[in-house]
Amino acid sequence: MQRNVYFYGKKFASMFNYTPQNQLDIFNFKISFESQLDPNNRWVKLAKLLDWDKFAAIYGQNFSSTMGAKGVNARVVIGALIIKHIEAKDDRGTIEAIKENPYMQFFLGFDHFSFEPVFDPSLFVHIRKRLGNEDFDKMNQIIIAKALNLELEKEDSDGENKPEEDKKTKNKGKLQLDATIADVNIKYPTDLSLLNDSREKSEEIIDIFCKHLGVKKPRTYRIEARKRWLNLSKSKRKNYKQIQVGIKQQLNYLKRNFKNIDKLLDKNPLLLGVLDNKQHRYLLIIRELYRQQLEMYKEKKHTVSNRIVSIHQPHVRPMVRGKQGKNVEFGPKINVSAQQGYTRIDQFSFEAFNEGIYLQEQVENYKKLNGCYPEVVLTDEIYMNRENRKFLKENNIRHTGKPLGRKPKEELSRYQKEKLKKERGERNHIEGKFGQGKTKYKLNNIRAKLVTTSQSWVAAILFVMNIIKLSKTYFFAFFYELFFNCSYPNYNNNVSFNRNLLLLAA
After folding, report:
1. Is the Cβ–Cβ distance between 78 and 459 less than 8 Å?
2. Calculated CA dihedral for residues 108, 110, 111, 113, nearest 10 degrees
3. pLDDT tens for residues 419-449?
4. Co-location of 33 and 108 in the same domain
5. Residue 85 lies in a domain
6. Global pTM?
């Protein structure tokens, strides 16, 4: 049975719907072949681990309590996103997997097995538009707070309780900072391919106008233009002169098409109404791309402000990284902070930015969550400008940056050198989180098309990574209790224990 929980927030044409987490019991979950679910299954354990009520309250802020029809159950929505990114599936594949798996359905809050899809896969787009980075950051804070409480319980269970004065220390913990690019799923852009795509779009628009007016299509030389582009693009070795000739040809074809479009619009000013929003958007994009390419061709340069590298995603910018094997990346830049293996996105932008100017904001965010400043900030040199060094010094926060100026007269002791070397090595942990996200959860293959949905996609991946980290934290807390506070007979031969261990480690 479900009940409605109402939240007041932004006005959307849907009522909020949610099943409370304490309403479900695994042994009451009904399936057609009259058997019970395995309580040791990873989805069952994960369902009990998460604070669904708090997550639902965050999601419910985007709904109206009085207007519209009931929306999809909040737990189903959030759970489906978690399943999607844990399993690294596409939208349709996620719905199919849920339809086939009773454990996933229990994870979503169902009390019986259903053969029907939980919702249409296209709804994922609207969900991503509603849940942005701010919403996922609030959920991440809930996960981090829960993990920190576990850490405190572990310290207390160890019997090494510190005096109250020691617990009230000003600075505590380590904050790791770094930035990376979440690559979007676009083909590698070249000037020739972009101009060819724009030419084909302009020809589609001319065809739409002529069909609506019932007039003969103007000459566009589309067959000749495509042949020339194919001959050049298939050439294995293209020199600079050949590329410039090809660019000039495509610019001329595109210029001719724009003249034909303008002539048709001059005779029929209302003709733009024939285009839908998507087609009209493409017309504006290819005009701007033509202007940029013409400017670069005439001035013989390779850069221009707000350069378009995809007519389908014009908000994507080339990010020059200067890294070996990948000098330029295409996608949003995210500035990330990490604490005990839990990550948060502090800044997200499709435009290039210097992450060093946000260090103070990230340190203040750490203080809001933890109630104190970090003891040490682990960063690379780009964060260590003079303003940030001054800020860290005033707040008694150590850092791993190299000191400015001459070498100090008094050298560090051997212990201090070893400690600094170890802390500089710990900064690599956040690089490992990026590698985990890009290798396992496809952080380097963002398939969303819009700015808002791309932001939600990236934030959801880091949210799922934090959930996996939390499940492992719970496992190690259980492991600690098992071996230090009580005896567990024959744990090496216990099949159930070993199976749980493998499931949680997966």
Report:
1. no
2. -110
3. 777 877 888 899 999 999 999 999 999 999 9
4. yes
5. yes
6. 0.84
456 in the same domain as 332: yes
pLDDT tens, residue by residue, 207-241: 999 999 999 999 999 999 999 999 999 998 899 99
Q: Which CATH number covers residue 404?
A: 3.30.420
Give strand ranges (E) for 31-99: 69-70
The residue type found at 26 is I
Q: Say if 447 falls within a structural domain.
A: yes
For residue 83, give every residue at least 6 positions away whose Cβ sits within 8 Å of its Cβ, in sequence order, or none.
Answer: 89, 94, 97, 98, 104, 107, 108
423-to-192, 360, 399, 451 alpha-carbon distances in Å? 48, 20, 9, 36
> Are residues 372 and 256 located together in one domain of the fold?
no
The answer to whether residue 476 is domain-embedded is no
Confidence (pLDDT) at 69: 74
Q: Are residue 288 and residue 377 in the same domain, yes or no?
A: no
Tell me the per-residue pLDDT of 60-104, one tens digit each, with 9 for 90 and over. 888 877 777 788 899 999 999 999 999 999 999 999 999 999 999
- % helix, strand, coil for the chain, step of 5: 55, 10, 35
SS3 19: coil
Q: Look at residues 252, 282, 299 and tell me which one is the last residue of a structural domain.
A: 299
Examine residue 46 and state whether it is found in any structural domain, yes or no: yes
Structural domain count, the chain: 3
* C-alpha–C-alpha distance, residues 148 and 327, integer Å: 38
Range of the domain at 391: 136-185+328-462
DSSP 163: P
* Residues 208 and 275: beta-carbon distance below 8 Å: yes
Could you tell me if 42 and 127 lie in one domain? yes
The rounded distance, in Å, linking the Cα atoms of 15 and 69 is 5
Q: Do 117 and 228 fall within a single domain? A: no
Instruction: Specify which residues 329 forms β-bridges with.
Output: 319
How many Å apart are CA 316 and CA 314, to the nearest integer? 5
Residue 188 phi/psi, 5-degree rounding, is -60, 125
CB hemisphere CA count around 328 (13 angstroms) = 9
Element holding 461 (H helix, E strand): helix 451-484
Q: Which has the higher per-residue pLDDT, 165 or 392?
A: 392
Which DSSP letter does residue 21 get?
Answer: G
Q: Are residues 333 and 442 in the same domain?
A: yes
Beta strand 376-378 with 398-399 is parallel
Give the model's confidence band at 477: pLDDT under 50 very low, under 70 low, under 90 confident, else very high: low
| CA distances (Å), origin 362, targets 99, 214, 378, 459 | 41, 60, 12, 17
* Tokens (6 digits) for 229: 């582009």
**Statement to judge: residues 108 and 207 lie in one domain:** no
**Among 286, 281, 319, 315, which Cα is nearest to 303's?**
319
Q: Does residue 347 contact residue 370 with C-beta atoms inside 8 Å?
A: no
Instruction: Give 150-195 pLDDT, tens digit per residue.
Output: 554 555 555 455 555 444 558 899 999 999 999 999 999 999 999 9
